[in-house]
Specification:
Gyrase A, domain 2, Elongation Factor Tu (Ef-tu), domain 3, five-stranded antiparallel sheet, alpha+beta, 2 domains
Length: 269
């Protein structure tokens, strides 16, 4: 698709975090460096459990008086409740807003002038735009609109997880899904919830599993189904679209993958 495309991302919401203490509060809680928003208006981040397991993932959008945490609509209320538990006497406010998010991929040099920003996870995912109120498509109406499945297939081929479809909450770590390789973590900021395990696994190379794009050779297995080879557990299936899928696999077991009806060879476009 040479001229580019755009699509609407389903079921997104924004948790608006405001108040005088909003930025230092988030800085002490999440995996990304909030101070980077001064020069990068869109970041990717996560909130972990105290044990370093993934609890939520989201995008950070910089606003003049607040920070928007854009994530899954179904997780928004739970995320709000979780953050509120840690505010103590800090002056922080929370509000959930339904939002519309557009993903676009094209060669338009003026895309950022139209309110789009590069997807911080991978250049191959193009740009994103968040609309707090319904808006027009001025600036991208020359691009071809495609259904979400097209974008989803691209995402899977790049090995990028998609929230609850790929993450086993309170079980997977940052390293299990390679989120540290797609810009979700700052290893130079101060302390945050779950930092100890995340930093240790990253700097010591302790991860035994990783998220892999796979080609499905037969019938697709349901997400979060165990992958067995010769009676041994080698991983777990995650999301799929057509013959493309993502799987969390033990790094030392890739030679057995073919026995599960999958392969990790490069996928066709």
């Amino acid at each position: 698709m040479t001229k580019g495309y755009y699509t609407f991302l389903p079921d997104r919401a924004a948790l608006v975090v405001g108040g005088p203490d909003a930025r230092p509060f988030l800085q002490s809680m999440i995996t990304q460096d909030v101070d980077l928003l001064a020069s990068q208006p869109l970041l990717y981040s996560a909130l972990l459990t105290a044990q370093g397991k993934l609890h939520y993932d989201f995008f950070l959008w910089n606003q003049s008086d607040s920070i928007l945490l854009e994530g899954e609509l179904s997780k928004a209320e739970d995320l709000l409740s979780r953050l509120r538990m840690f505010t103590l006497r800090k002056n922080v406010t929370f509000k959930i807003e339904p939002v519309q998010v557009i993903a676009a991929l094209g060669s338009d040099d003026n895309m950022q002038l139209c309110g789009f920003h590069p997807d911080p996870r991978h250049a191959g995912l193009g740009h994103r735009k968040l609309l707090r109120q319904p808006g027009d498509l001025n600036g991208i109406n020359h691009l071809q609109v495609v259904d979400y499945d097209f974008y989803d297939r691209l995402r899977i081929g790049l090995g990028i997880p998609d929230g609850s479809r790929d993450i086993e909450w309170e079980s997977d770590t940052i390293a299990d899904l390679s989120l540290d390789k797609i810009g979700a973590v700052s290893f130079t900021k101060g302390c945050y919830l779950g930092q100890e395990l995340t930093s240790r696994m990253h700097h010591r190379g302790l991860a035994k599993r990783g998220l892999y794009p796979v080609e499905i050779l037969g019938e697709a297995q349901r997400p979060f189904t165990d992958l067995l080879a010769d009676g041994n557990l080698i991983g777990e299936m995650r999301s799929h679209q057509g013959n493309r899928g993502l799987a969390v696999l033990r790094h030392d077991s890739l030679g057995l993958l073919a026995k599960t009806g999958l392969k990790t060879e490069p996928l066709a476009a």
